[in-house]
Design a protein that fits this description.
CATH topology: TIM Barrel
Radius of gyration: 21 Å
Bound molecules: zinc ion
CATH architecture: Alpha-Beta Barrel
Number of strands: 12
Distance between the termini: 42 Å
CATH class: Alpha Beta
Organism: Myxozyma melibiosi
Order of helices and strands: HEHEHEEHEHEHEHEHEHHEHEHHEHH
Number of domains: 1
Pfam family, one: TatD_DNase
Largest sheet: 8 strands, parallel
Number of helices: 15
CATH superfamily: Metal-dependent hydrolases
Strand order of the largest sheet: 1-2-3-7-9-10-11-12
Structural class: alpha/beta
Protein name: Metallo-dependent hydrolase
Length: about 375
């Protein structure tokens, strides 16, 4: 949605006192505005997503500077996966790389515009470093986007810093800000897309890091709901999913083992155990598939934003109604910290509470709990 369309919604002070938790946003896209933007906002915490090579460090810095307000999330967004090569060896030329992962096959003049790709392995090393630096960092924004096409200019979609000039009012942001995840069609796009196989490889490598370090993941999915479900459910293929009874028995055994040996560390689960489908736009009847623990034995959350979800009309109401109360999150998915982000927080909280039939304070408490469970929660695997 265009930045001018954001309406001024507000919440009572009592709700801000309970706390509003943004599960997914991108204010490092307008990094220099962040300190002032945070001052203007009452949200308790922002979960800030990294998306590409050049914003991982910004998210690290922002989280280090404002540890009470920001939870960092490191990852590589599907819109930029063409810039990574997944082989061990560097491709002999960038032309070979792009011809292998883009379709339909682009002409040489288009490939001339694209930079040399970087290795996925080096990105995963950087991701691991960031995750170790921040014990509560998430993995994200990761995912699959089958509708995304590369910009005609060959330049990656990125955002001009809104504060390079001396002025820094919200109106400056107006002309320059655009959501990382919502407004691709405003730009002139080429017909070239990244193959699903390539996107999947980049996603799986990052899910491996999430599993290893037991971190939640924030997932982007466009025209890929079936595919994403398949990718996630395949992670558990061939693995015995223990029943509650078996889990309890195993827990008991594990406790006994622990008292006998000095090893107190719980076994890490082999897969990510907390997953958020951000700005969820899939069909309502898929929700019960994701929350079926026999298929995906993780806690799956569904997060909603005004920026993306408002345009879904009646479907939005149906989806929010269907999501279990304890799996619902809210987000702004917005690239600028400040009063507009706050209006988006207020509007999504009001909308969700209205659809769910919750009082606003009651809703804020539920949403706060859900966010804490998603970000800091224990895993359910062992
Ligand atoms: Zn996003």
């Amino acid at each position: 949605m265009a930045i001018e369309e954001i309406e001024k919604y507000s919440l009572p002070d009592s709700v801000w006192d309970i706390g509003i938790y943004d599960a997914h946003c991108h204010p490092t896209d307008n990094y220099k505005r962040l300190p002032r933007g945070l001052q203007q906002m009452r949200a308790s915490k922002l979960t800030i997503m990294a998306t590409r090579l050049d914003d991982q460090e910004k998210v690290h810095e922002a989280a280090s500077q404002f540890p009470d307000r920001i939870v960092p999330s490191f990852g590589y967004h599907p819109w930029f996966t063409h810039l990574l090569y997944t082989s061990q060896q560097a491709p002999t030329s960038k032309y070979d790389h792009y011809r292998a992962i883009l379709f339909p096959e682009p002409p040489e003049e288009f490939l001339d515009l694209l930079p040399d790709p970087v290795s996925l392995e080096s990105f995963i090393t950087q991701l691991t470093t960031n995750v170790k630096r921040h014990p509560h960092a998430l993995i994200g924004e990761v995912g699959i986007d089958r509708s995304f096409r590369l910009p005609k200019s060959g330049k990656q979609i990125s955002f001009v810093e809104s504060d390079s000039s001396s002025s820094s009012s919200d109106d400056d942001a107006k002309s320059e800000a655009s959501s990382c995840c919502g407004e691709a069609d405003q730009r002139i796009l080429s017909p070239f897309r990244v193959t699903l196989e390539h996107q999947k490889e980049v996603l799986l490598a990052q899910l491996g890091v999430a599993a290893k370090f037991e971190r939640p993941v924030s997932v982007h999915g466009v025209q890929a709901h079936g595919v994403l479900f398949q990718i996630f459910s395949e992670l558990w293929a061939g693995v015995h999913i223990p029943s509650k009874k078996e889990k309890n028995r195993e827990k008991k055994l594990l406790n006994e083992e622990r008292t006998e040996s000095s090893d107190n560390s719980p076994r890490p689960p082999p897969f990510p155990t907390r997953i958020c489908l951000h700005s969820y736009s899939g069909p309502p009847d898929q929700i019960s598939l994701w929350t079926n623990k026999r298929k995906i034995p993780a806690q799956v959350y569904f997060s909603f934003s005004i920026v993306i979800n408002k345009r879904y009309g009646d479907k939005f109401n149906k989806v929010v109604q269907t999501v279990p109360d304890d799996r619902l999150l809210v987000e702004s998915d917005f690239p600028v910290a400040g009063e507009r982000m706050e209006w988006l927080h207020a509007e999504i909280v009001l909308r969700v509470c209205e659809i769910k039939g919750w009082g606003v304070e009651e809703g804020a408490k539920i949403l706060k709990n859900n966010w804490h469970e998603f970000v800091y929660g224990h895993n359910d695997w062992n």
